[in-house]
Protein: histidine kinase
Organism: Richelia sinica FACHB-800
Amino acid sequence: MLNRFDKLIYHNISLRLLLIVPFIVQIALTVSLVGYLSFKNGQKTVNDLANQIMDKTGRLVSQHLNNYLDVPKRLNQMNADAVETGILNLQNLEQSGKYFWKQMYLHENLGYNGYILPTGKGAGSGNYSQKKLKTLEIFPIVNKGVSKIYSYATDAQGNKTKLLNVYDYPGLAQPWYTQTAKAGKPIWSGVHPWSGAFGSESIAASANYPIYNKNGQLMAIFGVDLLLTNISNFLEQIHISKNGTIFIIERNGLLVANSGLEKPYLLVNKQVERLSAINSPNPLIGATAKYLQQQIPDLQTIQQTQQLEFDFQGHQQFVKIMPWKDSLGLDWLVVLAVPESDFITQIQSNTYNTILSCVITLLAASFVGIYISNWITKPILQLSQASQAIAAGKLDHSVDVKGINELEILGQSFNHMAKQLQESFSALARANSDLEQTNIELEARVEARTSELQATIQQLHQTQTQMVQSEKMSALGQMVAGVAHEINNPVNFIHGNVVHAEEYTQYLLELIHLYQQYLPEPPQEIADQLAAIEFEFLEKDLVKVFQSMQIGTKRIQEIVVSLRNFSRLDESEVKAVDIHEGIDSTLVILNNRLKAKSDREGIKVIKNYGKLPLIDCYAGQLNQVFMNLLNNAIDALEERDSERTVEQIKIQPSTITISTSVENGWLRISIADNGTGITEEVGSNIFNPFFTTKPVGKGTGLGLSISYQIVTQKHYGKLSYHSTLGEGTEFIVELPIHK
């Protein structure tokens, strides 16, 4: 078929056309590829440039957030240190309020700075930026958890000059206080609207810090409201691109700051309300937030920087989302949106110029290619005609090519080749006669050698298969020993510590009972928790759990011992071993095949063990024999049960009987099943290598052959069997007892 295709393509095509067309096609493909790569490179340049700008901007924003939001944390730590060193006496409310007023004077971006005691008393200072007013606020009176706050105007030194306002403030019930007291450590209590007196409006984040005395009792909680307006001002100063925007949102989608002129909040009835990014008056922010919600409905899942693209008003937008967190719990997303059109105009112009240059190059190269092809084809056609003459048997034909050095050399070589061909034909005729006789002799020698190799390969195959089977069993022993060792250490550790865990649990339960004795009516939160966890049931069930754990770890230890015994497969020297121990270990390995399955009943194992002495033997190899014999018995029973009904199996269940005894100086092991038995035809070949009655893929025919060699050659014993059709089969291993 390929030859037909070649003839169809090249039949009656001139050499000139064959040279010109591929040359032009090659140039066209090259120029097209260059234009395409130029276009793709322009797109990649846009993407890379946008990524670089957004990465740099993101790092700049993150650095500003780190610095800006670190101020209240440092102030709280400084105030806690002042209390600890005695510089600040929180019980002196007026002096403390003046102390916080001075801090407010140094930090214009704070909305409020103060503290509250567990009694509800406290002091602080407020910053009302629209009036450029910093107040001194003292709340010395508390009535039923509600503090009475006195707000004063101050002079340049922070001294009270005028009482501005008196209002009630339930400070002990405020979320910032309760959340901090519950956390017991410095936290942010979240972003919230800031609608202060005198027309102040903004949003703020509260950084709170609890301090405790040496007895661990709460002394006070510091609170700093940091105004977030400066963040939007900072973002507005960043020039990410001509039409790009930056905004910061919480994980719930509410705006924290943005780079546009629009405020990140609403003013409703002179009260500040938080604004969702989707509802932002800035069209690009709203569209970006809406697309982000469609792609990632749960913003909590964004844990790493992500980059998206979407279409907005016919223009492609690059979007980068960068998580930002701090140590006290703030968890925001910094979102940058940049239109592709801000970067692509100049790059597209360069791409069009490149493509135009490629087209001009294609036309020029095509013209030059046609001229050169005509110049080359003329002498080549002469050589073609000469080669046809030689093919017709005219070996004395010669050519005269001029014009191109390489073709002149080719013509000379062509003439020399024609002369050599004439001489070679004569030499080949003589050589063919000699080769025919040599081939006859070689064929005879090859046939004889092939017969020898086939016999050797057959013998090697048999030996290799036996070695592979032995290596498999040795590898199984090594694996089992390793598994048993790796399991044993953690199980012993768990088993040893269960007793201590149970003892420690009893101590804890006794402690709880003691608490119940001295505190019969616990607080409601503790009572709810006791009911939620069902403490009385948990107390009773815990004892059963520890008992189950002890029984389970004990069972694992027993299985590990059996695995260790079976892992003697890799032992090469003769040792005195307990035969019963090897049989039991093998049964543990085969337990999964013996137990009942969803589609059949289990196989019952009956042990009639006699009193046996320790016997010198290769323990691992004998374990291999037991494994082969027990596997064959299980296979026979499974095959018989697959053809019986459930009722038949219940009437006559499958059993394997293992008996051991010592008779006349021989140790005798019997493994019998009540399967279908073995026919005489099968029995006559049962110990032959590669003989098997099992389907392809389920047996190699080496199990009994290798077992026979292990028993008779390695241990100088006997391996025999007795079988009755319809009743079962018994294999008998007899080993001499050496005293």
Notes: The domain at 92-227 is CATH 3.30.450.20 (Beta-Lactamase). The two ends are 81 Å apart (CA to CA). The chain has four domains: 15-68+228-344, 92-227, 405-559, 571-736. The first strand starts at residue 110 and ends at 116.
